[in-house]
Structure formats: C-alpha cells, structure tokens
Specification:
Blueprint: H1 3-22, H2 40-58, H3 63-90, H4 98-122
Amino acid sequence: MTTTSFLLFMLLVKHAIADLALQSRFNNPEYGDKKNLTDKKLWLHSLDHAGLTVLVSLFFVGLFPALLVGLVDFVLHAGIDYTKRIYTLKKKLGYKHAKFWRIQSIDQIAHYSCYFIYALILI
C-alpha cells in the first residue's frame, strides 16, 4: 500500500467517524437542521471533519499543510452538506424518497472526491 492510498483510507475512516458516530451529538433541535447558514449543527459538524482531517494529516505531513487542508475541508464539507440540505428541502425529499438516497450518494461522492484530492496534493 502506498502512502497516498493509506492517507486516503484514513480520511475515509475519519469521514465515517465524523458523519456517523460524531454527528449524532447534534440531533438536539437547539443545534438547528443545517437549513440555515446560522445553524450550529452545520458548523460544528464541519468542525468535527476539519479537526479530524488535521489529526489524520499530521501523521503524513507537517503542521501547516495539515492545518491548511483542515481549513479547506471545513469549507468544502459545510458547502457540500448545506447544498444537499437546501436541495432536499426545496424538493421536499425525505428519507423515504428514493431520490433522497440518490442525492445522498452524490453527497458522499463529493466528500470522497475531496479526500482523493487531499491525498494527491499532500503526498
């Protein structure tokens, strides 16, 4: 396994942890629903991703590149999630709609594509 592919794998593991295990902390209505740019859930969830991206990246590169890619991940993750949420609200798509899951797939592909690019740039 190359260093680049190992970094990519670790970023995917990080994504699963942040998107599944950690995001559930923000299910309380006080955090909002990612439908407004002022909703804390969007920013806290993106901060989880950014912090874990920095942590993973530190095993492969120095502090400055790790912080930089963490910042980029924060912005891109928030943008991808916000766009998906606004689209699903506009189209009135919920978990029971097949199209919701196609949009969810596109969302995940967008996140994975970011990690692929991070791995190529960092290593």
